[in-house]
Amino acid sequence: MRLLLTWLINAAALMALPYLMHSVTVDNVGAALVAALVLGLVNTIIRPLLVVLTLPVTVVSLGLFILVINALLFWLVAHLVGGFHVAGFWSAFLAAILYSVISWALSTLLLNKDGNP
Questions:
Q1: What gap in Å lies between CA 1 and CA 13, rounded to an integer?
Q2: Across the strands, what pairs with 84?
Q3: Counting Cβ atoms within 10 Å, is residue 74 exposed (0-12), middle (13-18) or buried (19+)?
Q4: Rounded CA gap, 60 and 66, in Å?
Q5: What residues form the membrane-spanning segments (predicted)?
Q6: Please, is 37 exposed, middle or buried when counting C-beta atoms within 10 Å of its C-beta (0-12, 13-18, 19+)?
Q7: Exposed e or buried b for every residue in 90-115, given b needs 16+ CB within 10 A?
Q8: CA–CA separation, 47 and 41 (whole Å)
């Protein structure tokens, strides 16, 4: 149940992005649901590998390179999922940050401390 609610929260965060940034578009709720699912899978499978491979750069940049990785993965998902579009890298960079903040805020409001709705 928690996984389903987290997926819906992430889709809602994706649906909110076009209202905050004109360079991000989500055509419909279905595209947001698919993009949230693909983004979750990419963050679960590919992101850890990229973090390990870029560890020296991440250490030198004091962890700021993680934001670049997040932006690249966000941009990748926008290229993979139809109906979800991001204008460019810098749009993906800002959108990934906003997406994280919105998703965190909604999760904090809707989920209890123990992770249940």
A1: 18
A2: 26
A3: buried
A4: 12
A5: 28-46, 53-77, 89-111
A6: middle
A7: ebbbbbbebbeebbeebeeeeeeeee
A8: 9
Q: In sequence order, what E strands does the chain have?
A: 24-26, 84-86
Check the CA dihedral 105-110-112-115 and report its sign: negative
Q: How confident is the model at residue 66 (pLDDT cuts 50, 70, 90)?
A: very high
Gap between the Cα atoms of 97 and 15, Å rounded: 15
Rounded to whole angstroms, the Cα distance separating 48 from 53 reads 9
* Mean pLDDT confidence for 38-49: 96
Tens-digit pLDDT profile for residues 69-85: 999 999 999 999 999 99
Residue whose entry in the numeric block shows the structure tokens 């991440």: 58
**Which of 48 and 1 is assigned the larger pLDDT?**
48
Closest CA to 66 of 37, 40, 96: 96
Is 21 within 8 Å of 96 (Cβ atoms)?
A: no
Q: Give the pLDDT confidence score for residue 106 in this predicted structure.
A: 93
Residue 58 token pair = 């991440």
Helix, strand, or coil (residue 26): strand
